[in-house]
User: Fold these one by one.
Assistant:
Number 1:
Amino acid sequence: MFESLQDRLGSILNGLTGRGALSEADVSAALREVRRALLEADVALDVVRSFTEKVREKAVGAEIVKSIKPGQMVVKIVHDELIAMLGSEGVTIDLNAAAPVVIMMVGLQGSGKTTTTGKIAKRLTARDKKKVLMASLDTRRPAAQEQLRQLGVQTGVDTLPVIAGQSPTDIAARAVQAAKLGGHDIVILDTAGRTHIDEPLMIEMAEIKRKSNPHEILLVADALTGQDAVNLARNFDERVGITGLVLTRMDGDGRGGAALSMRAVTGKPIKLIGVGEKMDELEEFHPRRVADRILG
Ligand code: GDP
């Protein structure tokens, strides 16, 4: 594994103990290590730049006190700033709207959208005692609709029956209607992804949004997304307007830098994280834990 930031900064800064305040040069040397650590954690380059500038402002001129090693002091500044940027603890799905509350799931193909749809539906049903309806809007891959139906059977959550030949927007409208008639509290729309962002995808998402008036639009993204995270989040946010993020595969080896990148470019909260393939492997987002992980 990589050397921890604490160790790296220790070797650069700890000789300064008892020397007054951190100078520009000390801070610049430290920030080179911070930059390296963030890039190794897969934080996007632009975000690394703006982040290190914030840390610079806080660190230059900071008094070196005897009780704390200068390296530790900078690690603390970095850590606090990371937590501040990652956002607050415990922001979760907002259900505060007239029923049926529509939750629209968006993201690239393979990001974990369908799995997360099932996980959220299960949690809202089992824990919050809500009546949930799930609908697959992926008309390009019949297997996707079948996958959601199976998750519905497995979790005991209703799924909208498939009618061949309907467009994604028609299905969205039918899902909302069916939820009204069926007395469902919540409808989760599992939209189709693509392997990459393109114009037709964005147009389709905007149309579905217009037809279904979602209260939440959650961008599901793989935590292992590297430098592309910024582009992905910015595009979905500008074109569709997301209300939050869900990061999947946080159980993997990645350091989770995508969390910082996506949060930084959109300003939208990370609401949940996926930590496995099973239906109960969904957790709240804890900024402190992710900050620790990014720093290694
Ligand atoms: P979609 O194309 O966006 O709907 O993606 P899927 O929901 O089909 O997920 C793609 C693959 O990722 C499946 O094999 C899922 O089991 C897996 N997956 C989804 N979320 C997680 C997660 O949090 N952790 C792990 N390890 N695998 C996940």
Number 2:
Amino acid sequence: RTRGGALSIQGLTVGYGGAPVLHGVGFDLAPGEVVALLGANGAGKTTLLRTLAGLARSTSGTVALDGQDLTTLRTEDRARRGLALVPDGQSVVAELTVDENLRLGALWRHRGAARERAIAGVYDMFEPLARRRTSAGHQLSGGERQMLALGRALVADPVLLALDEPSLGLAPLVVAHLMSTLQAAAAERGMTVLLAEQNVTSALSIADRGVVLDLGRVVADAPATALAADETLRHAYLGF
Ligand code: ATP
């Protein structure tokens, strides 16, 4: 079941004033596909996700969602078209409760009964959040915070969800739970997912495909099982 969410990235070149960090990056995501974005520290994963969200500007290239060009749109207009980014780090509001954080995510998207339905849908999917509704962000464990960041993105019903290293700093069992929850959410909602991760094994375990970046260029784009089995590639770019 898919609701769109086809992403086409073509020839993206992005820099921060100096030499480019991404050099003509291009690949596609089919609706409902889960794609792992892999590569060493500094390969350009964060820069690519920020460019997709409109937080970094490309000097050339295009980004299109379901055939509509997003390249010149502002971040909020991209969000309205259904693109959501879960940034790296702990992006939940520490002073607000779990419930307030989720409301914040739904505020601009839904009103009234639709807002309540969207929030209830997230609680249904994330048991631990439902139990901690009234806890403040700063009282949550790292895993709960990451789950809240994910939940807050989901209340806006994105068609394309990009996540920047959600596993960072989490214990292996917590990572496994987060990944399976993400996979279930993607399947249930027919949502396309672009998952930037240094935790290659975890990301490939739920991904259909993997795209490997090295020094700002795509060096591999293949089914997840093929990437996991490619020893040469693993040694060269993925560090295992
Ligand atoms: P990480 O896992 O560390 O986030 P990454 O693959 O996400 O790595 P980026 O964060 O996109 O890589 O960084 C790619 C390159 O761009 C690095 O060389 C980094 O130093 C540089 N860079 C990132 N952000 C900025 C910035 N705001 N200003 C200047 N250079 C930057």
